[in-house]
Amino acid sequence: xxxxxxxxxxxxxxxxxxxxLIAANFRDLPExxxxxxxxxxxxxxxxxxxxxxxxxxxxxxxxRLTAAWLVGFSRRFQxxxxxxxxxxxxxxxxxxxxxxxxxxxxxxxxxxRTLEAYLDVYLRQPDMSSDCGWAMGALSxxxxxxxxxxxxxxLEMGGPWEQWLAEKQIAxxxxxxxxxxxxxxxxxxxxxxxxxxxx
Length: 199
Fold this sequence. Notes:
mainly alpha, globular
């Protein structure tokens, strides 16, 4: 691996940030540390330049994962199309969950369509679908926030979602509700951290 760029060292590697962003592992921190982590992420989401975000997106899954969280926290809509494209072409571990978080933060119709298209492909490929729980949770949050109905073809009885759950041996009937609650909490957590930012 080549030497890390300055933005990568500052925003991704410092204090092991990217490890805490994998599947939102920062939730396991004690409450005070978790809040401090969130406020630091919020501050950096405002401080990082567009050019630095672009650098991070070009530096492997760790950079893209972190960039997605930074973009999502500060709702940098100028990167929405980049995030949508990255999710659609997801071929790497971990970063997809960050893309789902960012798309919820954008929360538009095109973001919902991107998640639907992702699920339509990857629910049918269980060996490549580790982010489908997050994607369906994110889609459900966008539906709820926009007051619109879910895409029935994905959620219908015996449809792709149920088949994916069976393939993954997920028998918890409340799994989708738990994923929806998690994604909703993460978005609320970002909102909670942002007002207290002191640059």
